[in-house]
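We were asked to recover a plausible sequence for a given structure. The inputs and outputs are reproduced exactly as logged, with field labels preserved.

PROBLEM: sequence recovery
POSITIONS: 525
GIVEN STRUCTURE:
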């Protein structure tokens, strides 16, 4: 590989940023310090050069990458959509309508999970859309914002890497094509991906975690405290930290004549126009529907869809007499403002990802974990290496680009029968990092979509993610001797259920029965 690394000190910047963020709950300053540490290493210890280098990295991360710029534009436009929705009062009317049909707290959580699974095309679109639709319902049933953000996050990246028709899969296949050609592997790359699905343990386990904790009281760790506070006191997030990103509309005048259609129709327009834009940017007409979807420029498509939706909403609300056009712009601008914190965190997260790339953090981690491996431990070691890289850098796609070119020749040189589990281990590990790293863009967007303070989202979902990752590691060890991927998945799920029950029993607040009792009382009221 061409990539270079400075050795063990390459892990310092992300370690500093993540540790400070969790301890201090100050995400922005923690990321900034992490970036500066990386720039200091790159500059050879010169503080002045490190300062200017930090700014250059930030400018490059935001301005020199068209993808990042378009993602920021999409987030701001979606903020405008949320601002218009808030001004129209439609979330309240939709909540009143939906609560007659979604008649319990578990159903509200399951509906959120199901909607996240259905919107599988792109993780960014998933994170922000699901939160916009479901937040009024989950608020009504006193679901903590931390739990909502976890459900959103768990159905973003984990679903995208399991469904064979997402932008993620197109990216993975593009890497496999090159690797299979390089090493003379005759298997069709798409067929190889399909075969990895049962072996892709982490996404399956974390999706199962959502279902288990939605229909039972098996919460544990910080999430149990957030859920108990929401149920008993009606406090959905830590109010001492101010309004969370994506939820700062307390000063906005709200229309009183809205109907559920004022929320449903804009969301439908957003979904439909985004899919059409995906087809357009993927060259539909010259190629088939699914080929166009898999080859789409999703960031551009998201911008097109959001922009068209804002225009539609302004006209529709004016015609309906809900929000005059003259007042739409103030709601849109308020929506933009609500996304400033999220956009700032995104820019800093991308910057520290650039720092990690320049230092070779991922290459060093991969090299350390994969040295001198017994054959049976290859899938588990690849999973751990990918998980560490993804968590440290906050990027699954970057992890895939580093680790798949390591996994393919490693499996071929040792035991070709481990090729599929090895690829699946990389996909699982990268998904873990994307799902739960404090500096992952989808983690940030899930916080925004759930209107949850970012550090609270990270702290509450991390024990769940680590639990699933630990059990996935065990599962990947069994993959070297069990004959079928589905059997590996079945064994992993059985162990998973037992461990969740154990953790709920021994790592919970003093009165675990209060959670289910209060939930039942509230659901029945």
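RECOVERED SEQUENCE:
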């Amino acid at each position: 590989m061409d990539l270079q690394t400075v050795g063990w000190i390459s892990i310092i910047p992300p370690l500093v940023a993540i540790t400070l963020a969790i301890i201090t709950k100050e995400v922005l300053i923690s990321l900034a310090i992490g970036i500066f540490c990386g720039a200091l290493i790159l500059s050879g210890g010169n503080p002045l050069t490190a300062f200017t280098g930090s700014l250059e990295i930030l400018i490059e991360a935001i301005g020199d990458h068209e993808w990042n710029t378009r993602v920021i534009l999409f987030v701001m436009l979606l903020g405008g959509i949320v601002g218009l929705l808030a001004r129209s009062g439609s979330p309240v009317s939709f909540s009143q309508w939906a609560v007659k049909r979604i008649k319990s707290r578990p159903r509200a959580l399951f509906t959120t999970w199901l909607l996240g699974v259905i919107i599988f095309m792109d993780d960014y679109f998933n994170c922000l859309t699901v939160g916009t639709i479901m937040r009024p319902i989950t608020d009504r049933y006193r679901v903590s914002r931390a739990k909502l953000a976890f459900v959103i996050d768990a159905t973003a990246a984990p679903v995208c890497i399991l469904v064979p028709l997402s932008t993620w899969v197109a990216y993975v296949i593009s890497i496999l094509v090159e690797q299979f050609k390089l090493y003379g592997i005759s298997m069709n790359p798409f067929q190889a991906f399909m075969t990895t699905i049962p072996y892709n343990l982490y996404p399956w386990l974390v999706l199962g975690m959502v279902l288990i904790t939605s229909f039972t009281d098996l919460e544990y760790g910080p999430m149990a405290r957030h859920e108990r506070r929401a149920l008993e006191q009606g406090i959905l997030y830590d109010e001492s930290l101010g309004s969370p990103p994506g939820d700062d509309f307390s000063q906005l005048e709200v229309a009183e004549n809205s109907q559920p259609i004022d929320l449903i129709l804009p969301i439908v327009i957003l979904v439909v126009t985004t899919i059409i834009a995906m087809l357009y940017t993927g060259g539909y007409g010259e190629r088939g529907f699914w080929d166009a979807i898999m080859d789409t420029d999703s960031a551009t498509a998201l911008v097109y869809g959001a922009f068209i939706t804002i225009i539609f909403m302004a006209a529709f609300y004016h015609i309906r007499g809900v929000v005059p056009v003259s007042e739409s712009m103030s709601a849109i601008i308020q929506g933009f403002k609500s996304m400033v914190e999220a956009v700032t965190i995104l820019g800093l997260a991308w910057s520290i990802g650039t720092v990690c790339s320049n230092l070779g953090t991922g290459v060093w981690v991969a090299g350390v974990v994969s040295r001198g491996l017994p054959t049976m431990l290859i899938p588990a070691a690849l999973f751990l290496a990918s998980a560490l890289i993804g968590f440290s850098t906050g990027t699954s796609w970057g992890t895939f680009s580093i680790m798949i070119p390591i996994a393919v020749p490693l499996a071929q040189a040792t035991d070709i029968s481990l090729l599929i589990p090895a690829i699946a281990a990389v996909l699982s590990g990268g998904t873990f990092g994307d799902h739960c790293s404090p500096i992952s863009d989808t983690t940030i967007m899930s916080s925004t979509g759930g209107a949850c303070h970012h550090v609270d989202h990270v702290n509450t979902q991390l024990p769940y993610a680590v639990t699933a990752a630990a059990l996935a590691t065990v599962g990947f060890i069994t993959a070297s001797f069990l004959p079928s991927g589905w059997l590996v998945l079945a064994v992993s799920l059985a162990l998973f259920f037992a461990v969740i029950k154990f953790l709920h029993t021994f790592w919970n607040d003093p009165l675990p029965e209060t959670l289910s009792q209060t939930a039942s009382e509230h659901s029945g009221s």
